[in-house]
Amino acid sequence: MNLLFAASECSPYAKTGGLGDVLAALPATLRQRGHSVSCVLPLYRGLLEKLPNAELTPLELSIPLGGATVSGRIWKARAENGLPLFLVQQNEFFDRDSLYGLPLDFPDNAGRFLFFSKAVVELARHLSPLPQVIHCNDWQTGIIPALVKAQGLPFKTVYSIHNLAFQGSFPAADFGLTNLPGEYFSAPGVEYYGTLNLMKAGIVLADQVTTVSPRYAEEIQTESVGCGLDGVLRAHKGKLTGILNGVDTALWDPENDPALRAPFSAESLKGKAACKDALLAEFGLEPGEGAPVFGAISRLTGQKGFDLMESIVEGLLSQGARFILLGSGEARYESFFRTLAARYPQQVGARIGFDEALSHRIIAGTDFFLMPSLFEPCGLTQLYSLRYGTIPVVHETGGLANSVQDYRPETGEGTGFTFTPYSAQAFTGACRRALVLYEDKAALQNVRRQGMAQRFTWDESAAAYEAIYARLLA
Ligand code: ADP
Predict the structure, then answer these.
(1) How far, in Å, from the CA of 124 to the mean position of ligand 1?
(2) Which of 354, 390, 461 to mutate for ligand 1's pocket (most ligand atoms within 8 Å of CB)?
(3) Ligand 1 center–CA 18 separation, angstroms
(4) Fewer CB within 10 Å, N or C, the chain?
(5) Ligand 1, atom 9, residue with closest C-alpha
(6) pLDDT in tens, 167-183
(7) What are residue 413's DSSP bridge partners?
(8) Residues with Cβ within 6 A of ligand 1?
(9) What digits encode the pLDDT tens for the residues 89-144?
């Protein structure tokens, strides 16, 4: 099959979260499985330095954006993993210091990503052979199926929802920037209560819709997780599938991870203890064989359950636990964790920022990984934790519910601790059970090994996507 992925992120070149990880792995896995796959993303600042093999293509873009015409160029490069990448250059839009604007979104994000989406369609029309499927991801590329339909182009479209909470919702006036016929701005089209909603556009107009776990596919059809689009999703549930993300084992393998002090495996966990000691030392925390270490790596937002984390963390510290956090996001959480680390210098380490290598050291060096997300489309860090013998403690939602099996002391089965409902009390209960397990070293090693034996492979996920493309092309 001939596939073109369109996205605003692709690790290690452009990443703010899980979307970047998926784009680093899924297209490459499909390519290994024999398909012809390429990926197109915006040419952000600094990308050409990371891709010295990039070459300018002859294609000159001249794209209508409302009443204006915006020019652009396309570069072609090869990613480290061999994947062909196309980069859409429009320096006024993409040569900036962040992808979407921080802390506030760039005011012209509608224009930036409508331009990008139009450039993707233009590129697709000029590729030879033509792609059979354009696989779009999240709101930044949500308009592509509408553009394909309006222009009567021969591409099938798949739209993947990585997080329904970010919808690309813009004032009605921005609809003009799509240059679509007026009838598209309607209830069966891209309009949502008088606004332009690019997430809705993707859901309604793509030939197939996917999201990143089976449980989230169900949950987004309910009012509590549907972020206002549950009705739209119910109306289109016949074309909606949930496929769990995988672990990119080229990057996340405790036996072969350059970020770690020592390698380890399920058979030989000695290296994990060395990673724990090194991590405690790195943060200047009191060592102690007896002390369990809890970790968290996350965007610091309400979605990730930080209100619960705030309520329970001092309880954990009072039981002698250590806590290490890496993250950035909302100022109130950043300041909470900075203050906590200052108050408990022997027990709490907090690094505010984004640090890929440190994220590996934390996943390897902690005993338990906290992920009390209010909702979680898939979640990747709990998958990485399982692989690194770090036991996840998670709210039973979305991909967390699909990937972590609650530990039962009676049977010895399970890979982590899950809790429901979403409350500080239930979260505390799960952490208490984790502390009890920590005291029983044989059971602890058993649960670690059960987690490490889980296989969340991209190969399996890619096969499920293949089935969707095949259905579309049949
Ligand atoms: P989301 O996409 O909602 O942010 P996921 O769990 O799907 O959450 O993916 C998050 C990805 O981003 C993981 O690869 C995680 O390790 C990484 N990540 C999140 N915050 C940081 C950080 N501060 N430093 C390094 N990596 C981070």
Answers:
(1) 30
(2) 354
(3) 6
(4) C
(5) 18
(6) 999 999 999 999 999 99
(7) 408
(8) 17-18, 21, 163, 297-299, 326-328, 354-356, 359, 378-381
(9) 999 999 999 999 987 899 999 999 999 999 999 999 999 999 999 999 999 999 99
